[in-house]
Each structure stands twice: as structure tokens, then as C-alpha cells.
Amino acid sequence: MVMTVPMAFDTPNHVVGADLREFLALGCRTGYYALERLAYGWGRGELIAALQAAGPPGDGLEERHLLGALVIEFGLRPWPDVGERLAELA
Questions:
Q1: Which of 17, 15, 16, 28 shows the shortest CA–CA distance to 74?
Q2: Coil, strand or helix: which one is 18?
Q3: CA dihedral 10, 19, 28, 67 (to 10 degrees)
Q4: Domain ranges of the chain
Q5: What is the rounded CA–CA span in Å between residue 67 and residue 46?
Q6: Which contiguous run of DSSP H or E holds residue 25?
Q7: What confidence score (pLDDT) does residue 57 get?
Q8: Integer angstrom CA distances of residue 3 from 16, 72, 81
Q9: Reduced to 3 states, what is the DSSP secondary structure of residue 2?
Q10: Measured between alpha carbons, how far is 52 from 73 in angstroms, rounded to an integer?
Q11: Which residues contact 79 (CB under 8 A, 6 or more apart)?
Q12: Measured by CB atoms within 10 angstroms of the end CB, which terminus of the chain is less buried, N or C?
């Protein structure tokens, strides 16, 4: 799965999963909008830490509900080591 961030001019394309299910597992704690920060140097480390945190998913109640439904429907498990897996995929 490739994520394209047009405003990351030097490196707009990033591999964020081997398939759709792995991509969904990557963002099942934070939501998917935040994943854009993986394309930039600023905030990348903080986002990787948030992706590995064991807190409630999403920012709002509706987002938490939707992410929870995705987790149940697809049997998603958050990535255990986000930084390492992103390096493997790159």
C-alpha cells in the first residue's frame, strides 16, 4: 500500500503496508488522517510513538466508534514496532 503526500516534494510516496489490511492496522489507533505526518521529518517520531501507544483510538467519539468497528470487522492488531516495520517496507 503506497501513501502519496503531494506536499512532501522530495519524497511524496511512502509504503505504509504490504496490503490494505496492514495499512488499516497501522492507523487503527490514531485514525488515518494523521498518517500524512510520516512523510515529513517534523512530527514523524511523535506520530510513530502515538501509533504504538495503547490509548483509546481516534480523537472524537464518532472516530473511536468507526475505528473500533474496523478493528472488529477486519481483526486488526496495531503494529508492535512501527518504526521497524516502516523501515522494512521502505
A1: 28
A2: coil
A3: 120
A4: 2-89
A5: 20
A6: helix 20-26
A7: 63
A8: 6, 24, 19
A9: strand
A10: 21
A11: 25, 26, 51, 52, 85
A12: C
Name the one residue in this structure whose C-alpha cell is 514523524.
44
The three cell numbers of residue 43 are: 512530527
One digit per residue, the tens of pLDDT, for the chain of length 90 reads 898 888 888 888 889 999 999 999 999 988 898 888 888 877 788 888 888 886 656 667 888 899 999 999 999 999 999 999 999 998
DSSP conformation class of 6: T
The three cell numbers locating residue 20: 490494505
